[in-house]
Amino acid sequence: MFISRPSPTAARPGRLAPLALALFGLVVLLLPGAAPAAPVPDSFANLAEKLLPSVVNISTTQTVRNPHGAMEMPQFPPGSPFEEFFRDFMERQQGGDDRPHKANSLGSGFIIDPAGYIVTNNHVIADADEISVKLHDDSVFQATVVGRDPKVDLALLKIDPGKKTLVPVAFGNSDEARVGDWVLAIGNPFGFGGTVTTGIVSARARDINAGPYDDFIQTDAPINRGNSGGPMFNMKGEVIGINAAIISPSGGSIGIGFAIPSALATPVIDDLRKYGKVHRGWLGVRIQSLDADMAEAMGLPDSHGALVASVDPNGPGQKAGLKNGDVVLRFDDRDIPEMRRLPRVVAATPIGKKVEMVVWRDGKKVTLGATVGEMPEDPAEKLARTKGGKDKPAQPREGSQAIPGTGLTVATLTPPLRERFGLGEDSNGVVVTEIKGDSAAAEKGLRPGDLIIEADHKPIRAPQELAKAVEDGRRANQRSLLLRVENPQQLRYIALPLGEAKR
């Protein structure tokens, strides 16, 4: 094995080397804005000894059927020798039956109250029939679920400790954690309880598409399977994160782990303890992110903000005067630099609080006042039920048309087209029937079956109206046309490049 070692720096005889070192130290001291670094710990032993009794192992049991799933027999010609071979193979894989059996899983948690309240991840105890908690001294208790929140992936458990004295830990402020700060994680990786690992805060505010409120702390402290639900501590011994996820091709730690920050977790846990569920602020809007083309089409200087794709007719946003196509720039004195910030800010706002919003509308900033509502159990379903309103516009003339220079062919909605693309009777707009594969429309993600319901905030009810909007945009030297597009899965805005129509 070849081991590379750094070469020592040669120093000339005399006082040159000490002088150089002194000058280097002087330069460091005079660097502007240089902050003193926190001392490197000689050992984490004292901190670990103090915190280990507060971290628990969680094991769950659930009833499952046929863990290998329902396997279908491949089709072979009658009498084929492979038929018997595959039948025997599948029976061995499936155990010959699908009788229910017990499956176990392991995770971690930590005590927050000597009365027996324990925090963990929701995915650790999801679908569990039984939950057991093992303390640091190996005593075991059965736990009940006080409440859980799948959106943030947190759960609150309760055990009855009897005469057992539990050692709780306190939450710290994750907002104070800086990239490069030391952190310590304790958990139950691969069933090895009471395991301590250390590392640093690698990044803040990570979005890994795990849920609507992603704001993870990234760390290189080794986190493996079974660490889920365990605490991440700062050097004061305060919980600043709940370990929840890793990125790994093998399932083992590669130094990319994620923790739910305490600033996001503590209000959730407080609600679970008080109410058994989470009460979140709600604005009643669907939003999407902005790209540079959309921002330019709206006259915005950059792509910051959250674009309102639709407004719930019965929600707080509608009562505040929000409109489709508004871009929310500020909410309750907080900037909204990107789309995903708005749901987190609104959800954390107290229900009933009156707030100011700054939105971009028709090329200028507009200030609106809103009263934050309480998020329903499933706002997406409510929006789908109420979408469309009472007034239904008259059906336009039938017909289809290719829109020059866009790659789009659209048609008036008809009963056969509604059936073909699975569109509801209350749907409006023109339906995309064809897309050229190398067109701007295809690059922007438009697909057959999409409904174009607005162009530059004006309703579209016939192909001729869309063609006119495209032509008007070109005459006005617009680089793109803002379309409002809907399909059974989503409602969004698209900035369609106009280019030059081929004559």
From TrEMBL:
Segment forming the signal sequence: 1-37
Keyword Protease: yes
Start and end residues of each stretch annotated as Disordered: 374-406
A UniProt-annotated Pfam family: PDZ_6
UniProt cross-references to InterPro entries, sorted A to Z: Chloro_Bact_Ser_Proteases (IPR051201), PDZ (IPR001478), PDZ_6 (IPR041489), PDZ_sf (IPR036034), Pept_S1C_Do (IPR011782), Peptidase_S1_PA (IPR009003), Peptidase_S1C (IPR001940)
Keyword Magnesium tagged: no
Domain PDZ: residue ranges: 272-363, 410-461
Name the UniProt record assigns to this protein: DegQ family serine endoprotease
Species assigned in the record: Phaeospirillum tilakii
